[in-house]
Recover the amino acids of this structure.
């Protein structure tokens, strides 16, 4: 190594070291107040997710947070606003598979590809359930019935992750089943309760009141592992159906979010997930902590997008 | 089956019901008193502003507005010989005659007393009858919803007024509007032109605000102003014992006809008012006074209106079928809070229904109090220049629509439907069939296709479900009766033309 090169290297290293230690010493986040945007209206899924997390995040990260509802176009407007924002850590968007579906199903001004996934926070566990007085005791019963005659399976919405899961389950097991879609979980629930449908699929949060009232029986968890809230319910994989889904809840920001901002969030989210007060809240809400770091999350969302696109093409929904 | 404790609980859970009932009555009387501002517009104006409110308080506010407007309509009918609402048209005849005789205060008192009695009767029926209607909720399958939706659409036949073809056209346009958005089965986009704003379809609320409020304001802008009045002799005088005894028969007639018309889709207040006026005259001991200031001539139509304002809610809540414009707007009030009226309403939102019942009872007291207090402001308002009033209301409508989702796109949709509604009025195409199409179209289509997915394409599934089969038979009966009546009427008018 020549002297010149060495000097340059040393210089860069010093600058880096100073910057780094400076950042360490102050842990200065570039903004005092961070806006967290969601496309859901007040009281909706993502809105509740953000509003319940904010007070704990405020304590852990020492920043002010404000939740803003940018409704309209199933996330199209929120995506457009966030993609155009300055990447200074001042504005993030609460992501769910909806933003991928909206990007693929219509031609919004900005798509999920125009945003940079920041970190993931939770998975919303999807469960398959049936009426408490139905003859199906396990997922295998359901599959066997669908093999012998014809299954009737319900998903809340036509262009949704839930329908995708059922279609995948149908393909994986090779059975004959009608996948029926509804306008929201409530309508479908009734049809499970009155035995019009064999099974329904949905987030645990949605069915909790009926589950606690003893009117529903959860047959399988459609994730990689069992749920803390339902330790006795096996996953679909354990029951020989190789389908798992990860309905994510995380954050995304404008492209080129600076590394120190990313770092602050990676630390902050891990800390808040471990916080006992917050843990009590999210466990009660049926959420599964699922921190995914920035680099991995970018890949995760891209893969999820690809998978969804393939699915929507296979059903003829998009070209 | 009256759940008093349920109503009390709802009241404790949302105490906002009480101010909502009073505010609704006050707003309703003001809106009803303005000629040209019908109960449905008065309600549609409030609709966007209920978005942020507690759902129970919101529906109570709208339902109370309905009652207030039905009474308010009689104020200008009596004082300036101009009915504030269509259903107050029958009140003009004897109400204005009494005013000419210097008995305006008595006339207003009789109107208030009769509206009140009619609505007490209506609310009692609402509370006892709606729930049994919805008791079969859990047994409702997709096939049953198809039957219900078809029954709702069959009402178009009797709503079409003078021209069946025009009514069908309006209904079809409504059904077409309902196809915009995401396909309920495949998830494909239909008529969205790749615009994410259209992904979730055209919200029925915007259609209603456009058709009922915006189009009406356009219409009003093309009409001359109404008469003015002096306030000197206006103070409500309640009828004394002797008068109450005299009014009894006409009020009973009014309340019963109001109840029947409220239940029948397409009936509504106007028909009930005129029918009961005629019947009251037929049964009266002094029929010769009718037309010359008979108190019974006010009591009968006003008690009918009062009854309709409560009983029109029975099919709207129990079956999700709005039989009149005002009921359609109230249905919008449920939709805006994510509640779909129909058999499931009682299972899913029992507390809201109980709250609404409690609110309806409170609104009866509110009517009595507010009617006294608001008479003067009301007369003042009616005496304002019409163009200022209309411009003010227009601003109110648009800011309200914007406030729902902070969306200019939605303002655009409401304005577009205003223009469509105005054009429909101009060509005498009835608007309620279109609103029905928009409200019921998606339900019929999605459940029809869902039922076929479940049955593997076998249409017999609609006959095998007993609920669906019954509802479909009723629907076909309904269409048949309307058709027969329609052709008989047109034959009669043909004969008249020939004989003339």
């Amino acid at each position: 190594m020549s002297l010149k090169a060495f000097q340059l290297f040393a210089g860069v290293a010093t600058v880096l070291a100073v910057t780094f230690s400076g950042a360490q010493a102050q842990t200065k986040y570039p903004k005092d107040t961070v806006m967290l945007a969601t496309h859901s209206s007040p009281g909706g899924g993502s809105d509740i997710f953000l509003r319940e997390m904010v007070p704990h995040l405020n304590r852990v990260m020492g920043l002010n947070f404000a939740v803003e509802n940018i409704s309209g176009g199933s996330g199209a407007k929120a995506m457009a606003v966030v993609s155009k924002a300055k990447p200074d850590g001042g504005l993030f968007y609460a992501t769910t598979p909806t933003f991928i579906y909206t990007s693929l199903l219509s031609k919004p001004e900005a798509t999920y590809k125009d945003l940079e996934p920041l970190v993931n926070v939770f998975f919303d566990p999807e469960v398959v359930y049936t009426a408490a007085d139905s003859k199906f005791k396990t997922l295998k019963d359901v599959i066997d019935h669908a093999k012998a005659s014809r299954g009737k399976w319900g998903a809340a919405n036509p262009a949704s992750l839930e329908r995708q899961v059922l279609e995948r389950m149908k393909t994986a097991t090779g059975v004959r089943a009608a996948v029926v879609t509804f306008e929201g979980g409530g309508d479908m629930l009734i049809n499970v309760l009155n035995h019009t449908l064999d099974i329904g699929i949905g987030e645990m949060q949605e069915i909790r009141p009926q589950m606690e009232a003893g009117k529903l029986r959860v047959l399988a968890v459609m994730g990689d592992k069992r749920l803390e809230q339902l330790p006795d319910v096996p996953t679909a994989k354990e029951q020989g159906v190789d389908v798992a889904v990860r309905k994510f809840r995380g954050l995304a920001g404008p492209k080129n979010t600076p590394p120190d901002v990313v770092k602050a969030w990676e630390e902050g989210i891990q800390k808040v997930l471990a916080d006992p007060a917050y843990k009590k809240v999210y466990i009660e809400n049926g959420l599964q902590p699922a921190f995914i770091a920035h680099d991995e999350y970018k890949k995760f969302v891209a893969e999820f997008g690809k998978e969804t696109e393939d699915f929507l093409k296979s059903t003829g929904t998009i070209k | 089956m009256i759940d008093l404790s349920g109503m009390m609980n709802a009241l404790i859970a949302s105490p906002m019901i009480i101010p909502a009932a009073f505010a609704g009555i006050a707003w309703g009387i003001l809106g009803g008193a303005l000629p040209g501002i019908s109960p449905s517009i008065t309600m549609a104006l409030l609709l966007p502003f209920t978005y942020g409110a507690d759902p129970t308080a919101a529906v109570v506010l709208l339902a109370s507005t309905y009652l207030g407007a039905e009474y308010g309509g009689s104020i200008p009918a009596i004082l300036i010989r101009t009915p504030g609402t269509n259903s107050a048209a029958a009140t003009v005849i004897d109400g204005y005659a009494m005013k000419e005789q210097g008995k305006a205060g008595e006339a207003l008192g009789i109107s208030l007393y009769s509206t009140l009695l009619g609505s007490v009767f209506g609310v009692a029926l609402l509370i006892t009858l709606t729930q049994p209607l919805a008791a079969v909720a859990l047994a409702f399958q997709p096939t049953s919803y198809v039957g219900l939706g078809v029954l709702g659409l069959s009402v178009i036949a009797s709503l079409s007024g003078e021209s069946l073809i025009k009514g069908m056209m309006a209904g079809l346009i409504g059904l077409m509007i309902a196809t915009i958005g995401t396909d309920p089965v495949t998830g494909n986009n239909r008529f969205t032109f790749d615009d994410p704003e259209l992904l979730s379809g055209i919200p029925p609320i915007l259609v209603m605000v456009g058709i009922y409020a915006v189009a009406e304001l356009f219409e009003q802008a093309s009409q001359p102003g109404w008469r003015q009045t002096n306030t000197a002799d206006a103070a409500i005088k309640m009828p004394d014992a002797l008068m109450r005894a005299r009014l009894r028969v006409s009020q009973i007639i009014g309340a019963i006809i109001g109840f029947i018309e409220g239940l029948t889709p397409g009936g509504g207040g106007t028909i009930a008012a005129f029918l009961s006026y005629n019947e009251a005259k037929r049964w009266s001991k002094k029929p010769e006074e009718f037309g010359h200031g008979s108190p019974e001539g006010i009591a009968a139509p006003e008690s009918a209106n009062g009854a309709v304002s409560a009983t029109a809610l029975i099919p709207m809540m129990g079956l999700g079928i709005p039989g009149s414009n005002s009921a359609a707007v109230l249905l919008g009030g449920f939709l805006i809070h994510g509640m779909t009226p129909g058999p499931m309403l009682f299972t899913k939102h029992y507390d809201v229904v109980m709250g609404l019942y409690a609110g309806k009872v409170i609104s009866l007291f509110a009517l009595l109090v507010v009617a006294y207090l608001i008479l003067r402001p009301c007369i003042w308002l009616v005496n304002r220049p019409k163009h200022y009033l209309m411009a003010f209301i227009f601003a109110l409508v648009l800011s309200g629509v914007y406030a729902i989702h902070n969306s200019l796109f939605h303002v655009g949709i409401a304005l577009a439907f205003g223009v469509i509604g105005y054009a429909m009025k101009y060509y005498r195409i009835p608007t309620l069939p279109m609103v029905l199409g928009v409200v019921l179209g998606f339900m019929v289509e999605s459940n029809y296709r869902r039922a076929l997915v479940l049955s593997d394409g076998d249409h017999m599934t609609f006959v095998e479900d007993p609920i669906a089969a019954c509802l479909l038979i009723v629907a076909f009966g309904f269409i048949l009766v309307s058709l027969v009546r329609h052709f008989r009427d047109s034959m009669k008018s043909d004969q008249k033309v020939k004989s003339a």
Notes: The first helix of chain A runs from residue 3 to 26. Residues 23-124+247-314 of chain A form a domain with the D-Maltodextrin-Binding Protein; domain 2 fold (CATH 3.40.190.150).
